[in-house]
Protein 1
Amino acid sequence: MSNTSTMTTYFNSENEISKEQYESLKENSNSIGVLQQGEVSCPVTVNFCCRIEIPPGFNRDSTNFPEGFGFQFDLSNIRCYKEPLLATASVPTCVGGEPLECEVVAGYAVRVCGSSTLLVNAPLFAIEPGFFNDKLPARGCCSSQTPVDDIIAYTCNPAPCTQDCVTDITGGFVSWSAVSDECGEYILVVSEITLAYAGCTTD
């Protein structure tokens, strides 16, 4: 396998950032963030990988690669569930009696479950343009769906998440690599995003 070129786009929740800024963002996000009284958020990392096939007779734009590439993340299939965290507490009994050791709910872990999907597309051009010229590219695409099942927060609030689980993409990157091997030409796409808990809808 030989990579002819690789380009990577880093971003936060607002816009494109540098690699150094992204590494700093990841380092800082590893510390627990306080949401509100009785809640803390823990970052969850989701990874993606897919490949855009380049059919015979077509090529990517080698001069402006990866200009014209587009990508979107879908988080609509993610739900949150609260799992009780048990602890032992001593409960007093009658005078002179031994205290009772009882299991009590000390708090709740918020588990984020479901899947996240990355959709990527890229402009492809005919090597020998026919009716359409090289200013009107076709587009190749690929998608990657990644299961999500991790603890994203801890809370004291017992109310269950009844509807929306609000997760924010605090940062991530998408990397495109133009590859040529015995299987032909394709674009390898590797991506990572960091999810943060922002709360959930309760009754």
Protein 2
Amino acid sequence: MTVRRFPSSLAWLAALVMLSIVAATIAGIAIYVETRMAARTQANAISHGYAARGKIAIAAKNCQACHVIPGVAGLAGAVGPDLTDVATRAMIAGRFRNDPDTMIRWLMHPQAMSPGSGMPEQGLSETEARNIAAYLYSNR
């Protein structure tokens, strides 16, 4: 039985294709990470908060009991709206313009802004609200 060998040019071509796939994968990961970091930096700047601290505050206040919040483990609540991509929405609670100041006020005092709303008062400080807003705005 004769063993047939691949031509060396074909082996080089296969190696180049594999190298290209690896390089494209690494570049894609780098672009993804850079985009996420830029979104987080921008969210921190517009809310004057810290997204990493916001994620901790969200878990501590158990916001995920009522809301779906990307990146926060635990219950995936179905009572409140899904907060995935909340940064891209035009409105908060269907009534208020979606901007950082309004988001922070809403997080601090939802019942004062919309009495009878399903969103309860959580007793958030301004710092906690800024941090939570930063986290929510960083998830685009």
Protein 3
Amino acid sequence: MLGKQIGYGTLIILGCLALAIFLTVNSVWLFDLNINPLKLAAATGRTASQMHHDYVRIIAYLQLPWIPSLKLDYFFSSAKGLQHFRDVKGLILFNNFVGLILVPTGAYLLHRLNKKSLTWLLMTPIKVVTTVSLVIIALMFVNFDQVFVAFHEVLFRNQDWIFDPNTDPVINMLPDTFFLECFLLFFVLFFGGLAVIYWLGRRSLKQH
């Protein structure tokens, strides 16, 4: 039973993770909402429509494997900057591939568990993951810059993620505050999925 609990919990939670990442990356609306509050037009010298245009091009490049290179219309990029976008694209496509497998698999397993009133098996794994996530969120609010640096050092083997505004001015429309909001949106989506599963688990306990 313990092995099934860990295995099912891992697959379903990883599916939620992949889906939350996918939805966060594609939340162009979050960028649009930040253009005026973060004064991005003043920071970049570009209009809101121009920034939206190039941001959509970035997301399309990251998400679509058949787009071989990133070409922005209103910002120039250095070789290091383009390499970083390539590195990010690799991670995004990997997440999408994992999501294509684990989201339907997790949904199927969840359906089976729910049908047998065994969804309660997922409650302990969800508590563990939620606790770890809350610790990360607390660290983000204490020192987001340090968490942001650590995040990049774990995911990337080079220093190409450190953008120079003089050679990669696109970074001026992607301030730290925006990335903080992206992290928070991810956790909202992730916790939302876990909350639904946890609720199903509590309901299944009452049926025993």
